[in-house]
Amino acid sequence: MTDYTFLEDIDTPEALAWAEKWSGESVEKLKSPAKDALEARLLAALDTDDRIAYVSRRGEKLYNFWRDAQHPRGVWRTTTLESYYSTQPKWDVLIDVDALAEAEGENWVWKGAVVRSPERDLALVKLSRGGADATVIREFDLATREFVGAGAFELPEAKSSVTWIDADTLLVGTDTGEGSLTDSGYPARAVKWKRGTPIEQASVFFEGAREDVATHAWRDSTPGFERIFASRSLDFYNSETYLETADGLVLLEVPTDCDVIVKNQWLFVNPRTDYAGIPAGGLGVLELDAFLDGARDFNQVFEPSASTSLQGLATTKNFLVLTLLNNVSTEIVSVPLADPVAEPTRMELPDHVTAHVVATSPLDGDEIWVQAASFTEAPTLLRAELPGALEAVKKAPLQFENAGQETRQHWATSADGTKIPYFITGHFSDPTAHRKTLVHAYGGFEVSLTPSHSPTRGIAWLEKGYYFVEANLRGGGEFGPEWHSQATKLNRMKVWEDHRAVLADLVERGYATPEQIAIRGGSNGGLLTSGALTQYPEAFGAAVVQVPLADMLRYHTWSAGASWMAEYGNPDNPEERAVIEQYSPVQAVVGVEKRIYPPALVTTSTRDDRVHPAHARLFAQALLDAGQAVDYYENTEGGHAGAADNKQTAFVESLIYTWIEKTLDQQGSI
């Protein structure tokens, strides 16, 4: 039996040669004028200057990060509100990442900046090599527009967390050697780092345990409510939050599965199981001082229902803003921070859209920015000064032909009788027409999938008259914590039962035949599609498996894998391992003499330091050795996103959509 352990080494010459050879063969196989034309059109759509420049406020300036054809790596820039409202805003560039990368000989990818607030004079800029999660952190002076020289705060590449205490002091979590990281590769302690001193000599402010997922410390700089907090993420869904007081750090004593948010004089709780009269998925509030004195008589801000869940929480200076889902349709409401239990005010949104809060700036007032979009309607950016109404500010161009396209919502019935919703978008003028259908799903980590707009998907798929499906499987967060917890650990197989039910429902309703269905998913969604391939290959005609988890018997030993055991279970626990063995894709692959799988395209990134590329490599190799039809592509950059810039995104997406269409055509001719 061939030894493939060399594929577990991320970037050794042997592993890279294996990936380069197979990737090159896949690219060569899919070369065509149509593929080139699609790639060019996708890149033009991604680079167009007509896109919305999304902004966030810091003081008098609006900040934006922007990529286009002239700046593929991007520029960090600012403008004023007045200029932003004009048809041609005047942008003031702070950092040109392309120029920086060229000058330094680095493949920098922008990962954001932590700006000192409310002063807005200094920033800690995060730069990634090739799109990895790990970043280099460098101090930048916003007044001089230059990186700080002597005495600057700088951190080498690591999965770091940083926050400002004052101009000369940071709270930092980073890799400083033995004991500084958790088993998941994230900071295990936070230190107070004084300017001009080595990070190794910084005093420990807070420390968790090595088996935790991560620790984190931060400062709330709200005037009059300045506080410092620390937290231990015990696992993905359980944590402890601490508040610095005159007597030292004090644990905020709530159940570990209860999220805690402190804002001004209030402590808000969002429990995953019922707590202190607040139901699972609800939101409760109590004065922080009263809580610290022992009170637990929380008042209810939001009560979930069977159809309605809390999806997001934002604040302005004087308002609390809640994003809700009602049967996977968005609602946004606000309540005054002075009286959080007051009757909420519903914000008027355009019809038939999904909306989310893009940005607020609580230190600067009650401004709120909201994006609204749908599968077929391009995004609109709206702005309000609460309690005022939202008004449209920018509208993105529609970059594909959407005439006659509609979206419907259906409910499939899973194996245990649970109703599973999904959206299908396309042309429904001919009820007897079967069409190629692309099904996307995720089903994990309490992630909610809502109707979203993608020019890439519209150009490459919907415009051609095909169907697109977004499935809301258990394991997601569309209906609150219980919808998620129903499909974790010992109940993980329910995710595939839900997925299979959606595929069967599409066929039963006459939208497609199994041979016309392609399934696609990335990361946890890649686990979903690779598992579907080995469990019910007769239900579809093609599978796209992107940056997947696939060797689930060893996932907890690679990269950040240990942090996900609250989701999947521990392979070293016999009871949980028995369930994992039922679906771990690498081990489940069988030869064509036993069962023929539809073709698969497996993709990953060499620079993915979240989900180890060995998952994709080993799964693809297992399929190949089994005689199954499989293609493979590994991008040398991109991190867990799979692509580091618009050009790479256009290339990878054109490759994937060309492969899907070609494969389904071949399946239809068999």
Automatic annotation (TrEMBL):
Coiled coil: none
Database matches in Pfam families: Peptidase_S9, Peptidase_S9_N
Superkingdom of source: Bacteria
Domain Peptidase S9A N-terminal: start-end pairs: 3-387
Signal sequence, renumbered to the chain: none
Record key words, sorted: Hydrolase, Protease, Serine protease
Chain ranges of the Peptidase S9 prolyl oligopeptidase catalytic domain: 459-666
GO molecular function: oligopeptidase activity; serine-type endopeptidase activity
Any one GO BP annotation for this protein: proteolysis
GO cellular component, one term: cytosol
Name of the protein: Prolyl oligopeptidase
Species name: [Brevibacterium] flavum
